[in-house]
């Protein structure tokens, strides 16, 4: 309220989801830790079994791809952990933290590069543009599930 207005784009948000394989492999804590230690702010978090309808909307742009049916089966195979992270340049920074879609191409140090091997089980989703992030957040979260709060270290993460 008092300081963050000085940093353009500091309220940018992105949707991240730990996919069913990431949940099964108990990677949720380590994934959240990477975003927290980077300095991003968690504003939404829930565990859910994504419905086929939600997944069809989420992956609508891929519905003609050959891997689409197996992608939906995979994403529907167990609970996912959906979250919304906020901060300056968070959409692009998150894509870099997450790494290449194909783990074989993902650099060590990225989430996919450190924790996964094959494109069909790449453990995490992240929005790929600011516009897509807005649509995905609206699809996965109600407004009342998103928290407005001040991080007490805001002035140490961003210039005041
Ligand atoms: N995917 C797959 N095979 C492919 C390409 C993609 O199984 O050849 C899956 C993979 O889980 C990927 C998701 O489909 O994360 C969505 O693909 P997209 O190209 O949107 O990549 P992302 O934005 O997730 O990096």
UniProtKB/TrEMBL annotation:
GO cellular component terms given for this protein: cell projection; mitochondrial intermembrane space; mitochondrial matrix
Gene Ontology BP annotations: CTP biosynthetic process; GTP biosynthetic process; UTP biosynthetic process
PROSITE patterns per UniProt: NDPK, NDPK_LIKE
Catalytic function, reaction form: a 2'-deoxyribonucleoside 5'-diphosphate + ATP = a 2'-deoxyribonucleoside 5'-triphosphate + ADP; a ribonucleoside 5'-diphosphate + ATP = a ribonucleoside 5'-triphosphate + ADP
Binding, ATP: 19, 67, 95, 101, 112, 122
Disulfide bond recorded as keyword: no
Active-site residues annotated for this sequence: 125 (pros-phosphohistidine intermediate)
Stored InterPro entries: NDK-like_dom, NDK-like_dom_sf, Nucleoside_diP_kinase, Nucleoside_diP_kinase_AS
SUPFAM superfamilies xref list: Nucleoside diphosphate kinase, NDK (SSF54919)
EC number: 2.7.4.6
UniProt cross-references to Gene3D superfamilies, sorted A to Z: Nucleoside diphosphate kinase-like domain
Source organism, top-level taxon: Eukaryota
Bilayer topology annotation: Peripheral membrane protein
Localization annotation: Cell projection; Mitochondrion intermembrane space; Mitochondrion matrix
Keywords associated with the record: ATP-binding, Cell projection, Kinase, Magnesium, Metal-binding, Nucleotide metabolism, Nucleotide-binding, Transferase
Gene Ontology molecular function: ATP binding; metal ion binding; nucleoside diphosphate kinase activity
Limits of the Nucleoside diphosphate kinase-like domain: 11-148
Cofactor(s) the record lists: Mg(2+)
HAMAP family named among the record's database cross-references: NDP_kinase
Similarity comment text for this entry: Belongs to the NDK family.
Name of the featured protein: Nucleoside diphosphate kinase
Source organism (scientific name): Denticeps clupeoides
Gene responsible for this protein: NME4
């Amino acid at each position: 309220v008092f300081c963050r207005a000085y940093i353009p784009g500091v309220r940018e948000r992105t949707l991240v989801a730990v996919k069913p394989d990431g949940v099964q492999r108990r990677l949720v804590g380590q994934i959240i830790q990477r975003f927290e230690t980077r300095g991003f702010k968690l504003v939404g978090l829930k565990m859910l079994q994504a419905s086929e309808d939600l997944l069809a909307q989420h992956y609508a742009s891929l519905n003609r791809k050959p891997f689409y049916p197996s992608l939906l089966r995979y994403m529907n195979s167990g609970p996912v952990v959906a979250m919304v992270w906020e901060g300056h340049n968070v959409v692009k920074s998150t894509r870099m933290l997450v790494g290449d879609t194909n783990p074989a191409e993902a650099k060590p140090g990225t989430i996919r590069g450190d924790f996964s091997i094959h494109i069909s089980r790449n453990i995490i989703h992240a929005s790929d543009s600011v516009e897509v992030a807005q649509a995905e957040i609206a699809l996965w979260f109600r407004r009342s599930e998103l928290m407005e709060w001040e991080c007490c270290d805001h002035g140490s993460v961003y210039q005041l």
